């Protein structure tokens, strides 16, 4: 059975070009970047080249890029680092109900440490209302964190407008761009953010590496202390091979983004059309216009979601019900609940995320297998 991978929001395969770039730093070029000899200089040059590549893909300066172990660490460094650096000025933080757990759980922790956190609702498309953001700002507000694109339903948030409102009040803005980077244009100048998180394994790079963009002059405290690596903001010997892989993956993003976005958007629309033709009662979740091009989240009423996903997996098709970090949870997705979905729609979610290797034939196979599985489940229900 040929396996079909349609879960690129969870992780992506490492691109061959990325593997080739990393390989020397897993074998012969093994030096410590902090060493002064030629082996160390070789590794340092590789790290700084990757920093330039990541910066160029964001329209940032290399000095504004801090390498981390992934998107979660980048989120935590942004939130805790900015919160504690600005604590003398205030203690109020604003976020939304649909953020990744890395943001929500960190905000909950900060709430127990003397900070005051406001969690804003979203509308039925999963989008935060700009007027709610403006109304929530106080004279003690120091930080707003709103994700660029939602990892479950793909809704893109109005980050630039949020930044304009926040900066009028002297408030910092962080955005988790882990899902948007590599799928839609992400320019720190266009967005206007002070802090931005990204991850390597979402853009055909390796797992275990990410980056935080820190606009020049933005106050930030390190999470922990040790060596002076990454300007003291992320001490510890650098993951040279991983950083090299992230740099090469970011360079590929810059090269391929326009064409990939066009192809993914066309495939997504084709998938929607085929689903409606086979399953007229399907419900599409999230903003269907302002969304990630390769992500489609939908609900099929009257079908048990986990059972359906197992049936698809049995046919060699990998999709998910939502975020990979919440797989295995039996309660409905907090993101879908925040959108106000009726219970029947929260029990049967399917998230399909297309990638570079996805073809029209793959979409057609998925829809045919899904249709058969739904018919069997509904037949079992009717017969029982």
Automatic annotation (TrEMBL):
Catalytic activity: (sulfur carrier)-H + L-cysteine = (sulfur carrier)-SH + L-alanine
The protein's required cofactors: pyridoxal 5'-phosphate
Domain of life assignment: Bacteria
Pfam families the UniProt entry points to: Aminotran_5
Gene3D superfamilies assigned: 1.10.260.50, Aspartate Aminotransferase, domain 1, Type I PLP-dependent aspartate aminotransferase-like (Major domain)
Annotated InterPro entries: Aminotrans_V_dom, Aminotrans_V_PyrdxlP_BS, Cysteine_dSase, PyrdxlP-dep_Trfase, PyrdxlP-dep_Trfase_major, PyrdxlP-dep_Trfase_small
Domain (Aminotransferase class V): residue spans on this chain: 5-366
Documented EC number(s): 2.8.1.7
Keywords from the UniProt entry: 2Fe-2S, Iron, Iron-sulfur, Metal-binding, Pyridoxal phosphate, Transferase
Recorded GO MF terms: 2 iron, 2 sulfur cluster binding; cysteine desulfurase activity; metal ion binding
Family recorded in the similarity comment: Belongs to the class-V pyridoxal-phosphate-dependent aminotransferase family. NifS/IscS subfamily.
The protein's name in its UniProt record: cysteine desulfurase
Organism listed in the record: Thermodesulfitimonas autotrophica
